[in-house]
Amino acid sequence: MRPARFKDVDIIEAALAVAAREGPAGASIAKIAAQADAPTGSIYHRFRSRDVLLGEVWLKAVTDFQNAYIKLLDGSDVERAALDAALFVPRYVRENTAEARLMLLHRREDFLVPGWPVKMLEQAEMLGRQMQAAQQHFCRKLTGRDDRKTMRILCYAMVEAPMGAVRPYLEKGGTPPPLVDSLVEATFHAAMALTGGDA
Amino acid sequence: MRPARFKDVDIIEAALAVAAREGPAGASIAKIAAQADAPTGSIYHRFRSRDVLLGEVWLKAVTDFQNAYIKLLDGSDVERAALDAALFVPRYVRENTAEARLMLLHRREDFLVPGWPVKMLEQAEMLGRQMQAAQQHFCRKLTGRDDRKTMRILCYAMVEAPMGAVRPYLEKGGTPPPLVDSLVEATFHAAMALTGGDA
DNA sequence: AAGTAATTAGAATATATATTCTAAAACTAT
DNA sequence: ATAGTTTTAGAATATATATTCTAATTACTT
A23–B161: do the CB atoms touch at under 8 Å? Predict the structure, then answer.
């Protein structure tokens, strides 16, 4: 049996590079093949279709981010863990810029198209449930509540505001400066103060 | 001369609806034609190409948003004007959901492709300069400074954080609840507090 | 050394969509 | 009423890209 010159991982990596640079719509098989220095045939030898390939790229990025994020929530100092998780967003963006561009500059639907194999759809759903469950559990641990409003505030403080802070730098093709961390931290405290409000 | 059944505006409106629903990449001429209940020929009668049409859609949305936003900065009470501008983001999203989806869920480059007529490129550049100038002038008026750091903080407080707060609702196809306004306001104050820092 | 099976290679094909083109229709002005 | 001009209409064409297909490699196996 002939050994592979292009492994699944190599092709996913090439597709990630192209999609991060030009967006999912611009990530044609031809461009991905050029990026990997491979013929198109070798790509189809490994992936059923372009949609599946881009889907795998997206699933891998989200899985990696989410696993690291959720792991941080397990810290013994709950308050500290919350802030660490919020600050993980800019850090992740600096260290995994391509993946970050994929996830922050595009919609889930730009990757997750109808026509995905069931297995991939299930994995995507699983990721969503897993994140939801982790957030809810953590919210209860931190605030003693897990009602809708408290959850939304926490989600803003730990994910949405950090992502908003980071996005303009990704759009310009750069990475967030240290100032962003201060903004994330300040926002975190301000948002958490709203947590004690009404019922 | 025969009167037009489809005016420029009608076609732009249809293109906006499709692009807001399916993203710029999914906004094919066929779909736009169906949305406007027009033949494809009538679209090409008015717009040189699909790229130009989508570009006009984007330019119109950004121009409208920006004009309203900049007008708010002129309020006599500067502090109040700043907060009003920040809160304008969720308000705009509620009142102009389609335009908001266009601008917040996609990149500028997804609309502004190379191959645009010079006139449109110039208009896009002009918009950028105009926003930059307005922000800088306002920053000076509010804080007494317009250095890079202060500008970044203000931009986060007034635009980026609000957009981050609003995005998840747009992604789900909904609009931001009132809670978002509280988060925007809290973030605004927290970020502004960082303004007094070092040089 | 020859057989074997996975893999590469890229040309050929299919498909989807943008764009062009020709004719008919609908008003206006003379 | 008729000529003139814009606009509609949608079929025909071009183009771009995804996908398939056949042949040639390659290294392991016997």
Answer: no
Under an 8 A CB cutoff, do B149 and A190 touch? no
Residue B31, CB-side half-sphere exposure with 13 Å CA sphere: 16
Q: What confidence tier does A199 reach under pLDDT thresholds 50, 70, 90?
A: very low
pLDDT at B198: 54
Phi-psi region of B23 (alpha: psi -120 to 50; beta: other; left: phi over 0): left
Helices (H), B37-114: 40-46, 50-72, 78-95, 97-104
**pLDDT of amino acid A198:** 54
Residue length of chain B: 199
The protein side of the strand D contact, defined by CB less than 7 Å from any of its atoms, consists of A 1-3, 27-30, 40-41, 44, 49-51; B 1-6, 38-42, 44-46
Two structure tokens written together for B48:
């040189």
Measuring CA to CA, how many Å separate A70 from each of A77, A139, B138?
A: 14, 12, 40
pLDDT digits (tens, 9 = 90+) for B75-106: 999 999 999 999 999 999 999 999 999 999 99
Q: What single letter denotes the amino acid at residue B99? A: E
Cross-chain residue pair A186–B191, CB shorter than 8 Å = yes
Q: Dihedral sign for Cα B58, B64, B67, B72, please.
A: negative
CA distance A196 to A163: 24
Mention every residue, 6+ apart, whose C-beta is less than 8 A from residue A192.
Answer: A82, A153, A154, A157
Q: Break chain B into its structural domains and give their ranges.
A: 58-196
Chain A positions in Cβ-Cβ contact with residue B89 (cut-off 8 Å): none
- Which residues of A fall below an 8 Å CB-CB distance to B? 23-25, 105-110, 149, 152-153, 155-156, 160-165, 167-168, 171, 177, 179, 182-183, 186-187, 189-191, 193-194
Contact B110, B119 (CB under 8 A): no
As given in the structure block, the two tokens for residue B25 are 């990449």
pLDDT of residue B197: 61
**Disruptive mutation site among B156, B166, B185 for chain A (greatest number of A CBs within 10 Å):** B156
Q: Please check whether residue A162 is in contact with residue B162, taking contact to mean a CB–CB distance below 8 angstroms.
A: no
Distance CA A120, CA A116 (A): 6
